Each structure stands twice: as structure tokens, then as C-alpha cells.
Amino acid sequence: MVTRFAPSPTGPLHLGHAYAAILAHDMARAAGGRFLLRIEDIDRQRSKPRWEAQLIDDLRWLGLSWDGPVLRQSDRLPEYRAALADLWARGLLYRCSCTRRDIEAAVSAPQEGAEPAHGPDGLIYPGTCRAAGAPRPGEPLPDAVLRLRMDRAACSCGFDEIGPRHAGHHRITPEEMIATVGDVVLARREMGTSYHLSVVLDDAAQGVTHVTRGEDLFDATRIHVTLQHLLGLPVPVYCHHPLIRDENGKRLAKRDDARALSLFRAEGASPADIRRMVGL
Ligand code: GLU
């Protein structure tokens, strides 16, 4: 078994991160497997070295150890671009110049009262740039926002989930992907890649067998499994865990600095206290 913790260094680790990290760590250790650490720092604007240094310090303080070197997504841009070039050459991507406002305007055109449909990434893209943004024969991968042609990319596939809320086998159909996900962005402006593409390539490169992460990402898993099929990568087992919530039932976010591990540390909490607080 190979598991991983994949934080973004865009703020302090809070109790929710501690829960995710301990869960992935303990699962691997209980099975005699490997636990890996990956820094998801493709968002160059928001990722900061000081957050990375602090999260590594927090994880060590929690008593977690990881196997092998830390993988940093910012070191893997050539791999992401190579996968995009492959998909581009296969006619599966197109350039998109729509702003969020363009998309809102296109989908909110009067449609007999139908509510605009939302997918895992927000409004389902209406396909405005599909024809004009298509690759011309032999054209190299452009440095642009690139969307996946879901009508060509989607396949019948599935994945196994072992998390508490959605345990079982989940089937994915092309019809459902077209209707409820649509043409997702695989290369974002100023990133040259996207969360969806990077996470799939990294999990495969690191040999991750069990992806443990928050339930908020359950819906995105269909995108990841579709990409794994397109790119000939293995499909890991998924384990989506409940999110740690505050006393009002609101999920913790990075800005909830009130629950930052560093604050609990400063107040004298022990790693055992943190485990107790998150129920592990
Ligand atoms: N980097 C993501 C986060 O900080 C986690 C991605 C994943 O586990 O797939 O929430």
C-alpha cells in the first residue's frame, strides 16, 4: 500500500489537514506500506516557501514520517506539459479564451427556466471555444488555457471507493461525464497545468495505490479516473474521508487560522491531544 498527503503550501495546516495526514500515514503504516509527502504548489501566486517550511515542521511535530524525498509539483512542469502535448496532438484539447463572465453570460441566456448546470469545477462550460480553439494540423502545444473535449475523452470506466460515505464501486459513463462535468480546464493561465492533471500524473508517478483525501474531492474523482484512462495510468483505490468541521458545522478552510496547528502547539497541546481532537 502506498498513500500520500498532498497539501498546498498556501496557509497554515489546521486540524483538517492533521486528520488527513494522520489517516494516510496510519493506513500505510498499518499495512506495512509507504507514506509519501507531495507539495501541491502549482499555484505560484498563493504558494509560499514559509508555508511549506511550516507544514513540514508541523508534520514532524505530529510524529509523522514519510518515505523517500518530498515531491514538489513545481518541479514537474515538464511532465505536465508532455502529457498536455500528447492530449493536444490527439485532438482532445482546445484553447479557451472565455472569462468567467463570458461563461456566465453564455449559460444564463434564457432557457425556459432551466437552471444553469454545475459540475465539480463550477458552471458546465457551454463549448463556446470548442471549434475556434481546436488544434490545427501539426500545431505545437500552445501556452494557453486548455479545455478537455469531454465528448471525445469520456469512456465507460469506474473506480473503487473505500471511504465511509461512498463505499463501493462507482461506474462512470460518457453520457454522465458530458452532462454533469463537461469540458474541464486542464491547463490554467499562469500555471501551465491544473489540479486535475497534476494530481493524476503525480499519483501515478509516485505509485500511489490508495488516494486518501477529503470528501469535497469525491466529485472530482470522475475527472481523475477519466484522465487515468486517457493517459494509460493505473486507477488507484480512493478513500474520501469526512471533513473536520467547526462547532457550527462549517468545514475548516485555510483561513481558519484559529484552528492552525501552530496555535495549538503554542498553547501547549501535544500530538496526542491533536489525535484526540480529530478522533484518530
Ligand atoms: N492539494 C489538495 C489540498 O490541499 C489535495 C489534493 C488531493 O489530495 O487530491 O486540498
Automatic annotation (TrEMBL):
SUPFAM superfamilies: Nucleotidylyl transferase. InterPro entries: aa-tRNA-synth_I_CS, Glu/Gln-tRNA-synth, Glu/Gln-tRNA-synth_Ib_cat-dom, GluQ/Sye, Rossmann-like_a/b/a_fold. It comes from the Bacteria. Keywords: Aminoacyl-tRNA synthetase, ATP-binding, Ligase, Metal-binding, Nucleotide-binding, Protein biosynthesis, Zinc. GO terms for cellular component: cytosol. One of its GO terms (molecular function) is glutamate-tRNA ligase activity. GO terms for biological process: glutamyl-tRNA aminoacylation. NCBIfam families: PRK05710.1-4. Belongs to the class-I aminoacyl-tRNA synthetase family. This is Glutamyl-tRNA synthetase. It comes from Paenirhodobacter enshiensis.
